Amino acid sequence: MVDRGQVKTTTSASDLSLKKQELLSSAMKRTSDWIFSQEIPSDVNIQIGESSFTLHKFPLVSKCGYIRKLVSESNDADVCFIDLSDDIPGGAEAFELAAKFCYGINFEINVENIAMLRCVAEFLEMTEDYAVGNLVGRTDAYLNDVALKTIAGSVSILHISESLLPIAEKAKLVSKCIDAIAYIACKESQLCSSGRSDSGSEGVMSSSLSSQQRPVVDWWAEDLTVLRIDIFQRVLIAMMARGFKQFAIGPILMLYAQKSLRGLVRSLTKKIEML
């Protein structure tokens, strides 16, 4: 038997916790604004390759769990130096956008930068545990609501993610893109099985019709040719798992070979000739 009073108390506690987080987030934003207006001296220097970012600890540690840990481990109480040159996905460009987010500076999230934003947010641990509406949640929302609604967008993000491995896998960005491509491809293609027939005769008829169908390369198939071969293979497996007809995979493979592998063969031939 459920204690209604207990459920009500739990809900109220949850509401209070959420309200507290929202108030804290608002306070953080006001503090960041105050830092800018008062020209507070910087107290943290972050090095990424040849780029150096002279910033303030508070806006960063309030939203980045990873930087919070590094700052807490630093022996220098005044100015902290952090080198992220060998670690951060997306390099200085990605970190600059993450830092802008921490300071409350507006910038555009689009298909071109969403992959590195999602990966840098994962790396810096910019989750709801540290701030309401943090960058992980914001980027996931953009992916689900906008970017992964089309094959072109999904393939573009997946292609960019290839240069952001292994963090892109950890953030489940690769799997999300592959699932989106497989889902949309099967939805828009007529070469997907709709399930088994109820009777044996219908099954024979369906099989006969399928054998007479000519494989047609869909308009989106060429988009897949930009993908790395192992990622391309995972996309095809996901498509077949969703019911994409196996006989229709052949033309897509042929197109991939013509577009992608031809360049690889030429590159290898040139290297062999130079030996």
Pick out its properties.
single chain; 275 residues; mainly alpha; 12 helices; 3 strands; 60% helix; elongated; disordered N terminus
Report on this model:
Helices cover about 60% and strands about 5% of the residues. It has a domain at about 150-190 and about 220-275. A 3-stranded mixed β-sheet has the order 2-1-3, covered by helices on one side. A hairpin with a 2-residue loop joins strand 1 (about 45-50) and strand 2 (about 50-55). The chain has helices spanning about 5-40, 55-60, 65-75, 90-105, 115-125, 135-145, 150-160, 165-170, 175-190, 200-210, 230-240, 250-275, and strands at about 45-50, 50-55, 80-85. With about 280 residues, the chain is mostly helical. The chain is built from 12 helices and 3 strands.
